[in-house]
C-alpha cells in the first residue's frame, strides 16, 4: 500500500463565511431552491435538501431578530455537523457545479471580448484618418488581437517594408507565399501588425504560436466611395495566416 498524503477535508466552518451570514444563507437557500423545485419524490436527496433549506431560513431569521453573526453561525455549523441529512453535501456539490459554470462563462466572455478588440483597434485607428490613406497610413489598417496575452496590435499597409526591425519569424512565414494580389506579400497591414506581435512577445519560432489565438480585422480605404470599410480577405496573407492558424473577424 502506498502512503497517501494526508489531506484535511474542508470542515463545515470552512464553507460558511464569518460575515455577511444572512446574505450567504439567502444565496445558499436560493441556489438549493432552484434544484429542489425540479426534484421528485424519487429523489433521495429531496428530504435532506428541504431540511437544510429550512435551517438556512432559520439562520437568516436569527440574524434579523438580533442574534449575533458569530453565535448564529456557530449554531448553524453545529446543526449541520450533527443533524444534516445529506443536504449539505448536495449543496457543496451543486455550489461547485454552479461556480464552475460561472467561471467557464466568464472565461468565454473574456475570450470573446479579446477577439472583438481586434475590430475595435482597427476601427479606432482608421477613425484618426477620416480622409483615408495618406503619408502616414496606407490603404489598409489592421487590428490584431492575441487571446494568449489579451493584448492588441495595429498595423498599416506599407509599414513593414520600412520597419526598424523585421522579425525573422515574419520573414520565414512569408517564404513561399505567392503574390496573388496586386501588391507584394510584405506590403500588407497584417504583416506589420504580426511583426509587432512577434517582437513584443519575443517569439523565437513559429511553433510558439498556438492555433486560433490570433484574430485579425482589416479595414480598407475605398477611394471611390471615400470611406473606410471592413475587408474580409487578402489572398496573399491568407496563405501565411493559415500556417499559424490565425483567424479573421
Ligand atoms: Zn495581405
Strand content: 5-15%
Named CATH topology of the largest domain: Cytidine Deaminase, domain 2
Q: Give the end-to-end Cα distance, rounded to a whole number of Å.
A: 56 Å
Averaged pLDDT, please? 94
Low-confidence stretches: none
Compute the CA-based radius of gyration.
29 Å
- Provide the succession of SSEs: HHHHEEHHEEHE
CATH class bucket of the largest domain = Alpha Beta
The helix count comes to: 7
In one word, what is the shape? elongated
- What structural class should be given to the helix and strand makeup? alpha+beta
Going by CATH, the architecture of the largest domain would be: 3-Layer(aba) Sandwich
Structural domain count: 2
Q: How much helicity do the residues have?
A: 40-55%
Q: What ions, cofactors and ligands are bound? A: zinc ion
The major beta sheet can be summarized as: 5 strands, mixed
SSE topology sketch:
Blueprint: H1 21-36, H2 46-64, H3 69-83, H4 87-126, E1 140-146, E2 152-156, H5 168-174, H6 189-200, E3 214-222, E4 227-231, H7 235-243, E5 247-248
Parallel strand pairs: 3-5
Antiparallel strand pairs: 1-2, 1-3, 3-4
Helix pairs in contact: 1-2, 2-3, 2-4
The protein binds zinc ion (ZN).
Zinc ion binds next to helix 7.
Amino acid at each position: 500500500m502506498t502512503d497517501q498524503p494526508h489531506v484535511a477535508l474542508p470542515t463545515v466552518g470552512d464553507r460558511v463565511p464569518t460575515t455577511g451570514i444572512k446574505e450567504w444563507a439567502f444565496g445558499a437557500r436560493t441556489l438549493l431552491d432552484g434544484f429542489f423545485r425540479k426534484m421528485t419524490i424519487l429523489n433521495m436527496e429531496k428530504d435532506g435538501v428541504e431540511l437544510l433549506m429550512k435551517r438556512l431560513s432559520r439562520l437568516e431569521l436569527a440574524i434579523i431578530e438580533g442574534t449575533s453573526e458569530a453565535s448564529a453561525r456557530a449554531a448553524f455549523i453545529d446543526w449541520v455537523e450533527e443533524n444534516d441529512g445529506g443536504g449539505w453535501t448536495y449543496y457543496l456539490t451543486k455550489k461547485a457545479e454552479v461556480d464552475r459554470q460561472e467561471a467557464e462563462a466568464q472565461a468565454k466572455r473574456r475570450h470573446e471580448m479579446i477577439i472583438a478588440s481586434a475590430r475595435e483597434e482597427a476601427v479606432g485607428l482608421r477613425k484618426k484618418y477620416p480622409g483615408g490613406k495618406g503619408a502616414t497610413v496606407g490603404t489598409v489598417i489592421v487590428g490584431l488581437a492575441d487571446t494568449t496575452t489579451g493584448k492588441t496590435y495595429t498595423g498599416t499597409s506599407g509599414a513593414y517594408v520600412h520597419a526598424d526591425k523585421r522579425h525573422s519569424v515574419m520573414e520565414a512565414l512569408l517564404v513561399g507565399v505567392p503574390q496573388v494580389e496586386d501588391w507584394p506579400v510584405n506590403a500588407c497591414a497584417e504583416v506589420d501588425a504580426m511583426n509587432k506581435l512577434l517582437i513584443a512577445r519575443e517569439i523565437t519560432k513559429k511553433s510558439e504560436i498556438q492555433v486560433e489565438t490570433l484574430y485579425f480585422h482589416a479595414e480598407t480605404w475605398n477611394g471611390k466611395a471615400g470611406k473606410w470599410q471592413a475587408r474580409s480577405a487578402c489572398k496573399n496573407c491568407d496563405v501565411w495566416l493559415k500556417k499559424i492558424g490565425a483567424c479573421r473577424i
